């Protein structure tokens, strides 16, 4: 096992060995979540700060609970109620939080690169909880973890990612993680949102959804953020549903045991039919459970704990 | 002692023995609150989620502190900041929270029946923290507990509930609990809000406040929610005060040692004169203290702890 | 060592010995913040309530983390989301919180005297986290602590406070603390905001910034709250910057090793040049770290712990 990172900023920086290390650690921590007493002492007396400049209740709660289960003290700092509103810079805010002897700073920010910036100016460990359209490493790791738990390996698996690829940090991080772990990645969705440039990364790009689905072992549906959709690029909700929604008709083209993933929250009837979202093929709730385990693993590893301690 | 409930959804479902069990457990937990170290290990390593779709700071804090004192990990999830705003269904939100290995989900919701619905689809234990005009079981239990602590028993006691009975979940739950425990229940208030139909439950209904007061051992005043009062049914604030407010004049008709209750927050000068609210007859602050104890007992019992463990 | 206070309401009430006691305790607690396991058991099983009627994320977080590190249970209660909005009085809100067996109530309020009022009606210990233009004792204590750590003593030091003195609780509390500890205090700023009346307290008042700076060992810059500045008294932001901002030019007049303080958040380019704020003279981040230590000391001492227990 190997882990040489002080931070978790993106997937690109991780070696395949490091990804394997965090997935193995996550498996240990998922077992903690199934115990009667879901508690590990690893981060006792450590201070974890959730700095959520871009709001996200789900991801924040997942990190908060991960830190609590590791016995850390947790502080939530959201931009709305804070001095960031009073014109303070991100740099000053982060340094002030670090001055509270913060050990780990978890940041979510609408600007790409914000976590990398903080990692250069802080002594604390930094974990990226999503930055702009750039990266969302814990989401990618929990997705890869969920696939690996089912199939045993990602090597040679056909994984299709469907939806708004161009602006999605989830897609970007997933592509990196999947390729590193040896999967074949197919991207599909509206032509304006799935440009051929992704072929240079090693992905297959197709704008025919049937082609994207038919040999897939896994279909990962991205959330259509229709409450703040880019109006120019997006074809319109009705058109999206008619062309790309995973419905019963299209599902017939897929392998019977294809794994269906979605980062949540699902728009039922938009990305996927409601019945399919609740079918045995869907692992959306397992993804949530695994997300907590992966975040425990990330907190554990970046703060310098040895992965080998977990195997005992 | 007996307790056979996986959830705490309403008072109707509880037997008199079960109510007694929870009151006895609450007595033990009130003693915990009076110790120098107010902490019990019963729920260590358990995850409690406060899912408050309808906001309520007081009730949320009471549950949060109850869970903390039992050493649980607690997550607060409020609707405003959440994916519920993004169009996610309650079912999906609750399942996502459960997927974080939540042991107990506490829900407050403006829709009657929401907790019952969740109890059918979740494996977690569900506690109702107030649903629409339907039920507020922990409020009823803390009220009954407060009465029992003072009088020793509810058998044969005259309890009057005063105010907006028709739309009040507090009234509804209190009526069930009081009748089960053997009290005589009188309801009073404006005729539009206290219909005679309640007589079928076994209550006495009178629209003359003096009659409702004069033989009462306990008067429970409901909060007039004038910030969002139903305009059609409510007689107007001035009229309410002149006809139903518990003032010094009316108080003379009551037994000198009548117990005055109010679920809070009090509108001084509306439901009750300010001086009476602070008089020795008033137990409004004891209700708050007891509420915490009752909620500790509820968390303790629904999660499968044995009540007999408390007596040792 | 001596400490005879059940509350921490203002600096005036503290003797010089008591200030020394809390500074010494803060030193012990700062060492806790530098340990791998930043945790002390002193307040285990105690309940601390943050009652923030006037919002302040930074101060609230500092107190919250201080309480967590002392192993207390912490409840945050902000006015926005609460029954205070429903017309409940501060007295009722505070009593309701106390009825949850709260041991310590930390209050921030826009009305001067609110903490003193609560200390008279509650049995809980009360800590003032800032009240109106009146007092902000933990800020003054952390400032004095930061100076003492650097200079060893305050006796005979020249400390200049610069800015809106008239309406600043930070200035007021600092003046009391500095004078009690033997420092020489100079006040400077716009004539409308720094009246000569402060000379009666024992301060030097000058409206010429160069004079205020030149012999100072410490310069404490107050925050200009331009987002809600009193329009009549304040000269305007541009004029303030040109006359009173601490820029490179003016800094040449100061002692080379002068200590620069600011309670944060800084308006870069308003109270101080950005480069100076980040220079080795600036201790703004140490103030944040020390604030946590001072608040741990305050929580520890008001709740009746013996300072002598810390020296072992």
Molecular structure report:
3 copies of one chain form a homotrimer. With 312 residues, chain A is α/β, with parallel strands linked by helices. Chain A has 2 domains: 16-135 and 289-311, Rossmann fold (3-Layer(aba) Sandwich), CATH 3.40.50.1370; 137-288, Aspartate/ornithine carbamoyltransferase (Rossmann fold). Chain A is 38% helix and 14% strand. Chain A has 12 helices and 9 strands. Chain A has helices at 16-33, 57-69, 90-98, 114-121, 137-151, 169-180, 209-214, 237-244, 248-251, 274-277, 284-302, 308-311, and strands at 47-52, 73-78, 104-109, 125-131, 158-162, 184-188, 204-206, 218-221, 259-261. In chain A, the strands form 2 sheets. Chain A has a 5-stranded parallel beta sheet with strand order 7-6-5-8-9. In chain A, strands 2-1-3-4 form a 4-stranded parallel beta sheet, sandwiched between helices. In chain A, helix 6 links the parallel strand 5 and strand 6. In chain A, helix 1 packs across helix 5. The longest helix of chain A has 19 residues, at 284-302. Chain A is globular and about 55 Å long. The two termini of chain A are 14 Å apart. The mean pLDDT of chain A is 93. Chains in contact: A-B, A-C, B-C. The A-B interface holds A 33-39, 55, 57-58, 61-62, 64-65, 68-69, 227, 264-268, 285-286, 288-289, 292 and B 44-47, 73, 75, 77, 81-83, 86-89, 92-93, 95-101.
């Amino acid at each position: 096992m190997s882990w040489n990172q002080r931070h978790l900023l993106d997937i690109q920086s991780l070696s395949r060995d490091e990804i394997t290390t965090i997935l193995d650690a996550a498996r240990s921590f998922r077992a903690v979540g199934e115990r009667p007493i879901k508690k590990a002492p690893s981060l006792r007396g450590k201070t974890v700060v959730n700095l959520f400049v871009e709001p996200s209740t789900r991801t924040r709660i997942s990190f908060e609970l991960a830190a609590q289960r590791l016995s850390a003290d947790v502080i939530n700092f959201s931009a709305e109620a804070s001095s960031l509103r009073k014109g303070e810079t991100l740099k000053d805010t982060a340094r002030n939080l670090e001055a509270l002897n913060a050990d780990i700073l978890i940041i979510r920010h609408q600007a790409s690169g914000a976590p990398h910036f903080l990692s250069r100016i802080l002594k604390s460990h930094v974990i990226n909880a999503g930055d702009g359209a750039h990266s969302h490493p814990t989401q990618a790791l929990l997705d890869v973890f969920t696939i690996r738990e089912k199939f045993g390996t990602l090597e040679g698996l056909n994984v299709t990612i469907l939806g708004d690829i161009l602006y999605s940090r989830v897609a970007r991080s997933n592509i990196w993680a999947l390729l590193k772990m040896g999967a074949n990645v197919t991207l599909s969705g509206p032509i304006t949102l799935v440009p051929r440039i992704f072929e240079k990364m090693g992905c297959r790009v197709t704008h025919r959804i049937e082609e994207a689905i038919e040999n897939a072992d896994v279909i990962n549906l991205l959330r259509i953020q229709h409450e703040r959709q880019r109006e120019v690029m997006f074809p319109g909700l009705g058109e999206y549903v008619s062309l790309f929604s995973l419905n019963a008709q299209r599902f017939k083209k897929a392998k019977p045991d294809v794994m269906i993933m979605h980062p949540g929250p699902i728009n039922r009837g938009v990305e996927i039919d409601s019945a399919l979202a609740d079918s045995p093929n869907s692992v959306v709730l397992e993804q949530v459970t695994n997300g907590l385990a992966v975040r425990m693993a990330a907190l554990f590893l970046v703060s310098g704990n040895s992965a080998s301690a977990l195997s005992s």
